[in-house]
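Sample entry (119 residues):
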Amino acid sequence: MAGEPQADCLFCKIVAGNIPATVVRETETTVAFRDINPQAPTHVLVIPRVHYPDAAALAAAEPVIAADILREAGRIAAEEKIDDHGYRVVFNTGSGAGQTVFHAHAHVLGGRGLQWPPG
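Predicted structure, serialized as tokens:
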């Protein structure tokens, strides 16, 4: 069921504390941790504690939690001291866009120049 933990979801297991992660921030609705394959000096994932397969599904069902993810992205950027130089918040949606874990999440990237267009 949407919003419920999924037994086969890596990020649900991180939320539950069953898989270790380098957590940098936690709130009632989100968990933020360092990416295990960083693409920039700062690469933190911000995930909701509830399970939705992607950002669009999360925003449709739980808009307040979707906003919490963006708020936490800004706080992480400030704590990591990348907010003054610029940072990127990315939601990959679907395998064609590079989503590999189908639990909504935002990538907070910074600490180096980020070219446009990405990829």
